[in-house]
Amino acid sequence: MCLKASALLAPVFVLSLAHAAHSDDLFIQDLALPEVLTATHLHQPPAAVPGSISSIDHELIVASGARNITDLLRFIPGMLVVPDSGNLTTVNYHGSSPGQARRLQVLIDGRSVYRAGFAQVDWSDLPVAIEDIQRIEVFRGPNTVSYGANALLGVINIITFSAKDTHGSKLKTNLGENGIRDWYARQAWHSESSDMRLSISGLADDGFDKRRDGTDFRDGRRLSRFNLRADHQLDEHNSLDWQLAFKEGSNQVNNNYHSVFADNITPKAHEQDSNSDIQAKDYAASLRWTHTVNSQHSFSIQANAQQWERLRQWRACDAQISFGPALTEATLPKKGEIIPHSCGLINEDSREARFDLELQDTYSFSNSLRLISGLSYRYDQARSQTFLNGRQRKDITRAFSQFEWYATEHWLLQGGGMFEHDSSNGDSFSPRLAVNYMLTPAHGLRAVYSEAVRSPDMFENHADWHYRVRDLRPALSSGSSADFFISAQGSGALKQEKIKAYELGYNGYFAAQRLSIDVKLFEERISRMISHTPNLSAFNLNNNNHIKFYGSELESNWQASDQDRLRISYAYIKDRASNSLDQNVTPTHSGSLAWLRDWNHGWNSSLMYFAAKQLDGHDLQLATVRLAKHFNWADKRFTVAGNLQRTLNNQPIGHTNNKDNSQDLAYFSLQLEF
To answer: Which residues form the signal peptide (predicted)?
Structure first.
């Protein structure tokens, strides 16, 4: 059956399941239903969630052989993963703003890593090792009601192993093509009331092989990470958990500066740098205290502090008239006319900081009614002389509440809202209402309406973008420093984007067949949309655009036997946009297929396939293969694995400059646990 036909049959499939629910032999209940947390902050079985949620568990993470979190997100239906280079990948749900992560909230253990200053999530620089991840939960839909502005289209929650669930020591390394040199080391300690996990890791590679024109692509990366997590059970009613994380490294970037007067100047190679690399450092700390009053009532306080540092400085050349007063037609040189030039240091340093404090209360009035509510305060600051001419800050206060009410055995009503005051963007209120018809505890139909907002980032709204070029050689008559003649200013008048979303769906778990299925039909309308990407020569951002997404998504996981597991995802997405920049930004058809096999005697394998139709004019077909062997000696476990990633249709992946097949990779993994 073709992909398009599958999309059209999805509603029929949902209705068929609802009709079949009256047959008692179809649903054999499993008392140990899995639970998810990200949707509402409440532990819920997937069938009772007010929306669509995907979970990438640890088994799938290991079997994928993935070195990057972004590779795992290809399993999520409707998720667009686009590598711009070897060290820069963007991830977006339903494809809006493919160049930036504007409309997704990304969390590590509940701590937001979305950079509000510049609307970015630095996927290559996240201070977490993939080996520490227990699972990744992805809420596919608006969720400002739970996580505030920026959860416009979805939430990605990266959940790491708790210290008490980590045991012994682990050493691991990846070695392979394109300069792959990764390493990981972990140690866990346990006592009667406390548990601690320490992991240090590093990642290195040379990025893509070649550009499309055959020249070298300078996009390698080198990074090191430190993570410390501790869990303390203070007494019967109180627990304390804390984490420290640090990451430092460098990302290669070619000097792509192109002079406005390129036809009129002839700089020499030694006058300008060939690279403009980014030096990156991330610091993070979090503390969470949980008090359990009784089995019906608990509350917690979580505090997070973070800092991001991105340092980038390089030497480039331009015509000396570029550093003088505003140019006029009379002063413009004729094409081909050689004019004097100077070379100087360009600085694009930026620093961001955040402090976040949240109080959350969970109360069960009865077996059928639960309420979660809370208050939070967040302070964000961004500093950059080039992009902001100094410092910008904002304060955000929030109040939120959600309820879960089983009106009857089968009818589940959920609703709630978040009020948010943003010192830069004013007040907003985001509601959600969902009705789930629970055929059984493991099978539910759902209808959801939700609204959400996204606040413009500090750079979009308050940019003061200009370049003060220093150490000019030769110096100008005015000195060795001067301002470049082009600059840009943010209006400060941008409003929050707003979405209204409608969803019909089904989630079910067939215990006897060990099969889970989720189907979603959706329509999403974003208004007051900021479409343009900030540009120095044309900084004209506004709220004049809108877009509509509609379609269907399917996700299924089947433990076909004790040895075989199959996982499939598919998305059919159409869009109607008022601005040409937002049109055709997501493939109409996309999906993934994974087969995990345990061959016994310590051998296991995985075969995974990812496809997208017409992504930036190309069809993505990517396959990965992994074969692993486990050896046990006394209390030690040694694993050897071979990993291969290959493009199947000789086309670049997404919006990239890489040459065909330059992302083909082969590498080996060695792991020792004791």
So the answer is: 1-20
Domain 3-36+43-673 fold: Maltoporin; Chain A (2.40.170)
Highest mean pLDDT: which range of 118-127, 149-158, 370-379, 653-662: 370-379
Where residue 608 falls among pLDDT bands split at 50, 70, 90?
very high
Q: What is the phi/psi pair of residue 6, to 5°?
A: -60, -40
Mean pLDDT in residue range 19-38 = 56
Give the distance, in angstroms, between the CA of residue 395 and the centroid of all CA atoms in the same chain: 23
Give the separation between CA 569 and CA 55, rounded to whole angstroms.
12
Domain ranges of the chain: 3-36+43-673
* Kind of pairing between the strands at 497-510 and 488-489: unpaired
Length of the chain in residues, anyone? 674
Quote the tokens at residue 488.
């840009």
The CA-atom distances, in angstroms, between 80 and each of 96, 523, 570, 636, 648 are 9, 18, 12, 40, 18
DSSP assignment of 339-377 equals --EEEEEEE--EEEEEEEEEEEEEEEEETTEEEEEEEEE
Task: Count Cβ atoms within 10 A of the Cβ of residue 9 and give its class: 0-12 exposed, 13-18 middle, 19 or more buried.
Answer: middle
Say what the pTM is: 0.92
Sort 479 into a burial class: Cβ within 10 Å, 0-12 / 13-18 / 19+.
exposed
